[in-house]
């Protein structure tokens, strides 16, 4: 009964098969191999555009920090939610990679930036006032760290406001698949069509081993060479990138990543409904693969004693995360242990 994180889940067998298939013969290094190059067509098909460039890392933190560093100067700031992964779970990586850029934290319900808070922050940008740090980037997380999802309309609205003030729009898509399942959106609709300039597209939590893709859309492609240079300097230019690309190929083929995201979301839905039937209140409406339950100390102790693994979360809730490999039997066992 391990509900600790979707990063605790095993890799899908097809990912391992793809990596084994890529493990033949000699290939060019640093992303110049045939597997990485042919991934462009697959990504273009998934996102419905050829107007993009991409880079791969094995870490979501590295992808976020590298992407943001290309658009936020050392004297600038990134607008993000106070509970965003880049703010609370990356040990200052965005600030470090940008050489001193600041994160300007905004509040909002359910892990999403509030509309009024965004307007206030945008209105306060003044590049001519030397004593403050002007924002250069708006970063949205979808799925949010509270398991909720921005809709297409919300992303488009916020992106439009940010662009009007000259900001670049970044999306942390570590759980993009889960957000797309929750909103019935296509990858294109939720990203570049809604105004997202740079996406960190996560596949690790969905079922890969370590596969994160930075996508630069449209005018943001001008930063491709800088992104490569920053990746090299930061130690995130894998010499055998074909093995990361092979993971992406396997996940994207036949829409496997969306199938796995659907499985994770469905497991979380079953868990959430079961908890609610037992009178447990939830801190947030579960829209993806995470459930935040308001459990008593006795309930937490009882579940831990039964072997359930999960972690406390901000605001007093307990976070339970489902993955592609979460079995119905595990969910039901946790619910049974709670009742006992």
UniProtKB/TrEMBL annotation:
Keywords: Pyridoxal phosphate. Pfam families: Beta_elim_lyase (PF01212). It comes from Hyphomonas pacifica. This is Aromatic amino acid beta-eliminating lyase/threonine aldolase domain-containing protein. Homotetramer. GO terms for molecular function: lyase activity. Residues 3-296 form the Aromatic amino acid beta-eliminating lyase/threonine aldolase domain. One of its GO terms (biological process) is amino acid metabolic process.
């Amino acid at each position: 009964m391990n509900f600790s994180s979707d990063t605790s889940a095993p890799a899908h067998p097809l990912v391992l098969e793809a990596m084994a298939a890529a493990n033949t013969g000699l290939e060019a290094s640093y992303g110049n191999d045939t597997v990485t190059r042919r991934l462009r067509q697959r990504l273009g098909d998934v996102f419905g555009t050829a107007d993009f460039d991409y880079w791969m890392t094995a870490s979501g933190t590295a992808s976020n920090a590298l992407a943001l560093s290309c658009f936020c100067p050392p004297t600038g700031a990134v607008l993000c939610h106070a509970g965003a992964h880049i703010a609370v779970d990356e040990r200052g990586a965005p600030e470090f990679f940008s050489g001193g850029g600041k994160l300007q934290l905004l509040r909002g319900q359910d892990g999403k930036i509030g509309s009024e808070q965004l307007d206030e922050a945008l209105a306060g940008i003044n590049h001519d006032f030397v004593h403050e740090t002007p924002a250069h980037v708006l970063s949205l997380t979808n799925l949010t760290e509270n398991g909720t999802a921005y809709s297409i309309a919300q992303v488009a609205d916020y992106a439009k406001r940010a662009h009007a003030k000259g900001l670049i729009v970044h999306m942390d898509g570590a759980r993009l698949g889960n957000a797309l399942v929750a909103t019935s959106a296509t990858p294109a609709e939720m990203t570049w069509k809604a105004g997202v300039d740079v996406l960190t597209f996560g596949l690790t939590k969905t079922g890969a081993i370590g596969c994160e893709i930075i996508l630069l859309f449209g005018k943001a492609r001008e930063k491709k060479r800088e992104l490569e240079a920053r990746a090299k300097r930061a130690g995130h230019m894998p010499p055998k990138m074909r093995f990361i690309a092979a993971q992406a190929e396997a996940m994207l083929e036949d829409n496997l990543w969306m199938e796995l995201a659907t499985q994770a979301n469905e497991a979380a839905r079953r868990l959430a409904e079961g908890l609610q039937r037992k009178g447990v209140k939830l801190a947030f409406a579960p829209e993806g693969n995470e459930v935040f339950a308001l459990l008593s100390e006795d309930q937490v102790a009882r579940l831990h004693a039964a072997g359930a693994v999960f972690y406390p979360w901000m605001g007093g809730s307990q976070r339970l995360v489902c993955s592609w490999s979460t079995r119905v039997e595990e969910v039901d066992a946790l619910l049974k242990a709670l009742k006992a």
